[in-house]
Amino acid sequence: MSYPKPLSEKSIERLYKQSGLSEESRDYLNKFFSACANLYGIIELRHVWEVFKGLKDKPNLRRKDIVEFAKIARREVKPYYIYKFCELFIDEVDEDLNMFIVSEKLVGRGYGKHASIYILLEERHNKPYAMPKDFLSYANPKKTQEEINLYNFLSNLKSTAKTIIVDYKEEIPNKNKGKKLCKFSFLNLHERFEIDYTKRKSEKEFLRQKYSGTEAEKIMRKTNYKLNIGHFNPLEIFEHITDELSEVGVELTVKQFERLTELFQKYNNNTRMWCQKGWKPSEQRANLDPNNPPTIAVGPGIREAIKNGTIDKEEFIRGIREQGFEVDFDLRY
Fold first, then answer.
1. In sequence order, which ranges of 1-84 are alpha helices (DSSP H)?
2. How much of the chain is in helix, strand and coil states, percent to nearest 5?
3. Which residues pair with 297 in a beta bridge?
4. Cα–Cα nearest to 238, from 316, 307, 321
5. pLDDT tens across 24-59, in order?
6. In 3D, which of 93, 114, 90 has the Cα closest to residue 102?
7. Phi, then psi, of 231 in degrees rounded to 5
């Protein structure tokens, strides 16, 4: 079963009139659904009702009203989708509460358009949904100070290498030498491959738009997605950042590397993540057993940085433990 196409404004208005939902209720529910999509990435409608009941200063709405709004909203163009279970999974029953609110950021194109949805559902932790006091503000969430600080740092880094390596082996002059990461865009190996491999012009244009923006913007966008989806641990994500910086010709000094580590840790700790059902790692860490901290592995990039002296091993371990984790250098991810 495929997702339905949007209806005309006239048809949508007719459906809303038939539903009996007031303008005020519609406005509230649209903000509420947007906040759910931004906080959780994906959430079942039966859990949406539980979240709604737990909110303060809410309008007097019934579960039936939320179901009716969902049925109509899935025929509109919004920053989220309303998927029926049977549109994502085989043999699921088509019932009123068997629907998901899904962030538009989780829906791609082509055969793998739902891949991110399946990954997130696999990676999501079994915990209650976070319910911040300013819940409706997440309908249009503001950047945290930690995100702003990391972005500003990346924006002001310069590509300083004379040459860069492309396609794993070919060394070419660095045409962006001397430029800050907020002043140029760059397609990495994976992105170039995707665009070149795709034959359809419409798909090529979609990918070009997807990978548009300055290098600093792209790194932040990728980092935010990886933190949300939960498929990579923080050390893997940090190594992805440093690998990308190296690919565009950024040669980090020891001081810059330490500062990047500090800013990334703060950003990671204070980001509300989909894989954590809207919780920040700092909030979750407060509930961990201090005698049984989770263990994370160290990847080849960090190992090499410790080996060549860019990272001090003892300081690195101390920083990770301060985040509530233990480090295992023998564990491979």
1. 9-19, 23-40, 45-54, 63-73
2. 55, 10, 40
3. 328
4. 316
5. 999 999 999 999 999 999 999 999 999 999 999 899
6. 114
7. -80, -15
Structure token digits, residue 173: 């002059």
Between CA 232 and CA 245 the distance in angstroms is: 18
Give the residues across from 170 on adjacent strands.
166
Q: Which of 115, 109, 82, 132 is nearest to 276 (CA)?
A: 132
**In the structure encoding, which two tokens stand for residue 148, read together?**
């702003």
The answer to whether 70 touches 9, Cβ cutoff 8 Å, is: no
**Tens of pLDDT, residues 254-294:** 999 999 999 999 999 999 999 999 999 888 765 555 555 55
Strands 80-84 and 99-103: antiparallel
Q: How many helices (H) and strands (E) does the chain have?
A: 15, 7
The residue written with tokens 């990728």 in the block is 222
Query: What separation in angstroms does the CA of 284 have from each of 37, 43, 222, 330?
Result: 20, 19, 23, 26
Say what the pTM is.
0.82
Residue 312 Cα distances to 230, 255, 294, 295, 322, angstroms? 27, 12, 22, 20, 16
